[in-house]
Amino acid sequence: MRLVEIAAPVDAGAGETTHRPTPEQVRAQLERLRAHAFTGSDKLYAFLHFVVEEALAGRAATLKELVIGVELYGGVIEYDPRIDSAVRVEARRLRRKLAAYYAGVGREDAVIVSIPTGGYAPSFRLRQDARCIAADAPGAALEPPILAVLPFTALCIHEKAFAAGVTDEIIYAAERDAHLRVVPRAIMFQFRESRYSLDEVATHAGAALVLHGTIRRMQEVHRVCVELSSRCGRILWSDRIDIVGEGGLDVQERMAEAILERLPRSAVRERCIREIA
After folding, report:
1. Residue 18 pLDDT > 50
2. Taking burial as the number of CB atoms within 10 A of a residue's CB, which of 35, 133, 193, 200 is the most buried?
3. Residue 270 has pLDDT above 80, yes or no
4. Closest to 66 in 3D by CA, of 261, 220, 233
């Protein structure tokens, strides 16, 4: 079966993809966004313009926090992502601004520009993509597989509230990623104090993938060990991430962003292909 990607970047580099906007269409939409969504928001528009032009130039893979920070916010003092959160804060504002525009004035626009959660590379797609794909593969289940985020386990009793906050931030951010479908937090937090097998969790939640992990703290270093598993318990991906900070909302948000940024979309896509085939 031929798989057509719904929201492929123009610079995807994985061969030709049908039903995607041309660079000219993307730039025209960028001008429309500047006129209708970013009036009086020059700095935020500069962020969007930079990441879009970098993606169109084939450099989407280099769009990391440090690169954007140095380019847009470096100034005289070198940007340091360990102590400066300007890029992360502005990226969240940019996502909200784009979502509000496409829910209102831009709801009929042909070209949709978004910044998927977990990274800074933009995504471009045509509004009629879903209709085109449905016609190409009638009856196919085209949506991404459902992801269940198990409440993360705190290895220290004093970190239980922090771990719950990280779980909540992951679900919140993943819900806004066009490439993911996420089980609601009200369902997943039932599993916070009980032990269930991954198959039981996936069956109850109707999920194909389960994200879970542990959190511990040593002084100002918060370490999360995270796994993405299939419903039968096969580990598809795992990672260990350290976030430095005293704790609180900023560290929780940074940890959630780091997890989603590293989450391999190839594993999600493979599961989607298996469900469609």
Report:
1. no
2. 133
3. no
4. 261
C-beta separation of 245 from 254 below 8 A: yes
**For residue 7, what are its two tokens?**
């929201």
Name the token pair of 212: 């879970």
| Nearest alpha carbon to residue 19 among 133, 165, 95 | 133
Structure tokens at 143: 């949506």
Distance CA 47, CA 90 (A): 8
Domain positions in the chain: 23-136, 146-276
Q: What's the rounded Cα separation, in Å, for the pair 52 and 60?
A: 8
CA 177 remoteness from chain centre: 5
For residue 124, give the DSSP letter. Answer: E
Mean confidence (pLDDT) of the chain = 80
Window from 15-19, 117-121, 161-165 with minimum mean pLDDT: 15-19
Residue 210's region, left for phi above 0, alpha for psi from -120 to 50, else beta, is beta
- Separation between Cα atoms, residue 134 and residue 90, nearest integer Å: 35
* 8 A C-beta contact, residue 149 and residue 171: yes
pTM of the model: 0.54
Handedness of CA 194, 169, 233, 277 (dihedral sign): positive
Among 98, 133, 7, smallest CA distance to 60 is for: 7
SS3 76: coil
Burial 209-241 (b: 16+ CB within 10 A, else e): bbbbbbbebeeeebebbbbbbbbeeeebbeeeb
The helix-helix angle for 42-56 and 86-103 (nearest 10°) equals 90
Question: What's the token pair of residue 207?
Answer: 């999920």
Confidence of residue 128 (pLDDT cuts 50, 70, 90): low
